[in-house]
Design brief:
This protein is of the alpha/beta class. 51% of the residues lie in helices and 12% in strands. It has two domains: 7-139 and 296-351, D-Maltodextrin-Binding Protein, domain 2 (3-Layer(aba) Sandwich); 143-294 and 372-407, D-Maltodextrin-Binding Protein, domain 2, CATH 3.40.190.10.
Length: 410
Amino acid sequence: MKTIRTLAATTAICAAGAAHAVDLEVTHWWTSGGEAAAVAQFAKAFNEKTEHNWVDGAIAGGGGTARPIMISRILGGDPMDATQLNHGRQAEELIEAGLMLDLTDVAEAEGWKDIVNPSSLLDSCTVDGRIYCAPVNIHSWQWIWLSHKAYEDAGVDVPSNWDEFVASAPALEEAGKIPLAMGQQPWQSSGAFGVMAIAIAGQDAWSAVNIDKNADVAGGPEYAKVFEAAANARAFAAKSNVQDWNQATNLVITGQAGAQIMGDWAQGEFQVAGQVAGEDYTCLPGLGVNEIISTGGDAFYFPKQDDPEVEAAQKELAALLLSPEVQVDFNLAKGSLPIRGDVDLAAANDCMKKGLEILASGAILPDGNQTLSPDTSGQIEDLMVEFWNDPSYSAADAQARYAEIIADAD
């Protein structure tokens, strides 16, 4: 019979190699109100449950700004002790270069293969049979968030799907509202496009493009509908003159904008603002068209350090991140779903419960970070920046360029 060690046992094993308290520098890009409240749960647990200290290394500007800084430090010989990345292919080259700590012993001691759900999350941390990251949540991009105040002011009902949202846009504009809030960071427009692709082209077409790298489908009729929807979204967001994603979320929270296509991390912002799901705002998974969630999210990697005491502290943190109490406290604050299904989430709000129901139903897909290389993702981001910022860039021309990118994808 297989024996799974408890966190206490794993901590004892790690602590046996750590004679002194360690200051562990942890980098991440969680700087918005909801994100800061969530990451504080990790820091609190680490400081209270171990002898070590969490040294916060927050980098503002989101993942697009933070990731190059993080990777440059690791490659440049000035690594942090732990760093957030999206679980997927972002750390492949760092692992292959031997720069990341192998966490397989922690994963086996804690029984991660038995508790991480879906298993694809742990697969994304695995290279050549060894585990190099600790997944901490499931974050799905597949949501649109709708402001009840904006629609009440405009005198129209809150939409229940994408088509109704498109139909409501003129009334919002007439009422002086921005139909669609959208920040100017490249990953936002690229992510919104991915949401529209799954909702409008459908699961089979999305999988053919993102998993099988089928350029014919990318250039075909299913994706033509996606690019037409993106062109509409571009027009709806034309007056959304904000930079950061949480600034766009605030436009929805304050009723200045009708909607935002954004991942479920937006829930943390609504929560900090004291808004209630179903009363102040509505969340529609899959744009209300195709209820499915992607199972991307965040994981922590641990760059190698030439110090056994630091390594022991790194492994203590890795084990702690997946412990039941920490999973609950962090994910309730973050708005994400836990990576283990054996925790009590009775306190979850209506939107989080929707996500849990979809997850339980098996209506899931991998995230683009798990299927596309950083180079391919970067090319798509560049295309989306150009498309969203240039109204003369036609949907047909953008689709043709997109198909070329998919044809060369690795």
